[in-house]
Amino acid sequence: MPLTGDEWTAIRLTLALASVTAVLLLLLGTPLAWWLSRRRGETVAAIEAIVALPLVLPPTVLGFYLLLLFAPDSPLGRGWQWLTGEQLAFSFPALVIGSVIYSLPFVVQPLQHAFQRIPGELLEAAATLGAGPRDRFASVVLPLTRRSFLTAGALGFAHTVGEFGVVLMIGGNIPGETRVVSIALFDQVESLQLASAHRLAGGLVVCSLLLLFLIYRGGGLRPWRLGR
Amino acid sequence: MNGLSFDLAWTAPDSGFRLACAAELPARGVTAVYGPSGAGKSTLLHCIAGLRRGDPGSRIAFAGETWQTGGSCLPAHRRRAAVVFQDARLFPQLSVAGNLAYARRRAAPGGPEAAAVSAALGIEALLPRRPDTLSAGQKQRVAIARALLANPRLLLLDEPLANLDGEARRECLAALQAALGELAIPLLYVSHSIEEITGIADELLVLADGALLTRGPLLDLAGRLDSPLADEPDAAAIVEVTVAGTEDAYGLTRLTLAGEPLWVTAEAVTPGQRRRLRIPARDVSVCRTRPTDTSILNLLPVTLEALRPAGESHCLLQLAIDGQRLLARITRKSADALALAPGDSLYAQIKSTALAGDSL
Q1: Rounded CA gap, B123 and B118, in Å?
Q2: ipTM (interface pTM)
Q3: Which of A57, B20, B181, B275 is buried most, with the most CB atoms less than 10 Å from its CB?
Q4: Which of A125, A130, A135 is closest, CB to CB, to B80?
Q5: Cβ contacts (< 8 Å) between A130 and chain B: which residues?
Q6: Quick check: B134 and A227 in contact, CB under 8 A?
Q7: Other CB atoms closer than 10 Å to residue A34's CB: what's the count?
Q8: Coil, strand or helix: which one is B359?
Q9: Does B106 touch chain A (CB under 8 A)?
Q10: Do A128 and B77 touch (CB under 8 A)?
């Protein structure tokens, strides 16, 4: 039995959400992870704790606060309305914001650990050869952590595909806008469409397994040896 | 002031160690920074390179440009001061050629070509290799080449041979000497081995416990009784000699010092060359008349300039020959028996010697 149009819509939406989220997370997470990896102290520990919060909080807690934050009468909701002319709550952009926060640790932590393994000595050597801070990041850090970027991006993507609680709270189950696969599956089970639920659930299991396998295999990339 | 001048302090955040040191260095030539480990030599070099920031009040200037003063500090990548580190620090993701290109791409125009520098350091065959497949000596030669290709205005070497031993050390030193010979920029060479810097350094800064103990020309400091170098157990004077020829039947090289012949074992010398010879004080003894039936080949007429006790039972002599100096370490008993006094004309007997660079 082929997938229905509704199911395809949910799958396309899920992939779009996960892709946009992963790209945004890499853009935002890289400078944050770099900053965290090069410093020590109370401020750093506090920010690390905030980044790690989604790992321990029930997603519904996060969703609840985001719902309040996105509400049409909240400052953020009003500002968004004024800027875009559209409501923020129960919209695709709201899902993206929620997913970015929810998946932040899955991108920041692997990057931070990879950055911490870069010997400061190599960066010093690069500096004495005339490489400025950005040049050093591009010419030394990026090539040595390429694999971690793939891992971080894939983890951010996979974790966004797998989110449910946050989307349930802030999404509103609008087809083509906020109705992602996990929500569609929930609906199907609630209305006892078990055969359809099997297809979606099984598909998610297979795809997630494949993605995780690729991450763990290292994507066929060669790990750089940092030893001397 | 064309060269490097600094007046800097640096306090370790945890250990309480403090470096406080001021000096002015000429616009070219090799200045060795010498001292025991923990004296602050590498810290000094890192401050000059811009990798560490001196305490407030520190001042570093180079060729009319201020590198640090008051609250401002020029970052390392804007100083054009290349560093050769003890641990090579080659980029592991790049080949040897890639490492050289990394420096060349960021260098100011007019620098040397990679091909010429690779040839001078004997690393042409290594160019396609990865750093992790190189020996320690090969890595170090690549690191030297990389620093030269950065076309620096100041070259800083931080114990470049400390991780090497035996043959690798000799080879690397020879390559270094060959490559540095042509340079018209000032060099600062940190080392804890006088042997290593014998053939290279012009000037010497002696550091101990974070302070500048003394400074002066290397040959002068090596041959004076009042220099801290004379207190070391393996104190040795350094003299400049001319290669006169070889005596192949005996495997010896003939040198001349102040017109007098000296025979040493040496490799790769060409007649007419000026070389430095390091003569350990304990290999030198003296006599009042020229001995005629001794096995010792090297006899030099010298004048006793000064003597002082060295330890419980020995004393150290400062001997002059034609403006150069030797040190001799003899027993106090012998000194008394010979009734030695400054101004005496003596013959110095030198037991064994090797040319600088050959004895490492």
Answers
A1: 5
A2: 0.86
A3: B275
A4: A130
A5: 77, 80, 103, 106-107, 150
A6: no
A7: 18
A8: coil
A9: yes
A10: yes
